[in-house]
Amino acid sequence: MSRLTDDATIFLSADGTPLEEADVSPAERIVQRFFLAALAKDALATMALYTDDSVIEIPFNESGRTEEGAYRRYSGLAEITLFTEQSHAAEGEMGASDIELHRVEGGNTIFVESRGHIVMSSGREYRNRYVFRFDIEGGSIRRLREYYNPVTSGLAFGRKIGPA
Question: 38: domain range?
């Protein structure tokens, strides 16, 4: 397990000491670049991290349904770009904390646990806990799964809570 500082600029060991460059995998560097771009709301830098056929899945949603087709899924750069731009428009000030990275054996899958601290463009505060699964292929994000409390998110983004 490693950690990122809240501004995502420095990798730390579990005990909080900075890691040497050699101790950080290429996949972890991709995840770091993702957090740097997300915190800066830099859509171009974010999109440069994905493969052309990337997929983002958000398996938990406000309806409570989790079966295939019942949750949000964005396929390919066009859909992911639109999703990213819409998210950035709704989100005002971005922040993160407690960013922990867990590298799966083989090194191309990274799980991240973190907390998000966002002030929405509307002025509403949005705090949530996240678990991300990054599948890295050829130095890019091939698939991203994002898990969080959908009720907290739905309230912040003005989405309907409960069965559709």
Answer: 2-157
